């Protein structure tokens, strides 16, 4: 493996757009150095989320690459979000060009 290749955990959250500010605050509190927010559409146990009316019934996908320890902390903190809101979170080990 090239010395430029790093290992990390890709942490993905798909949730109601309403939670965006709270999630960004959580990421900053945990010490995440960067993230990406993407509008998301689809369907699941909370119904269809088509994003056809701005701010209503819309979802976002938030992605960040973190250490395994930070991914554990994020899962613990997000556990209480999921009780009241449409939210899923998952993580994957990744190799890539990031720092």
Largest sheet: 4 strands, antiparallel
Structural class: alpha+beta
Strand content: 35-45%
Average pLDDT, all residues: 86
- List SSEs in N-to-C order: EHEEEEHHE
Radius of gyration: 14 Å
Poorly predicted ranges (pLDDT <50, ≥5 residues)?
A: none
Number of helices: 3
Amino-to-carboxy terminus distance: 16 Å
Q: Based on DSSP secondary structure assignment, what is the total number of beta strands?
A: 6
Helical fraction equals 25-40%
Shape: globular
Adjacency order of strands in the biggest sheet: 2-5-1-6
Describe this structure in words.
There is one protein chain. With 99 residues, this protein is α+β, with helices and mostly antiparallel strands. The protein has a 4-stranded antiparallel sheet with strand order 2-5-1-6. A two-stranded antiparallel ribbon has the order 3-4. The longest helix has 11 residues. The protein is globular and about 45 Å long. The two termini are 16 Å apart.
Short description:
The chain has 3 helices and 6 strands. The protein is α+β, with helices and mostly antiparallel strands. The strands form 2 sheets. The protein has a 4-stranded antiparallel sheet. Strands 3-4 form a two-stranded antiparallel sheet.
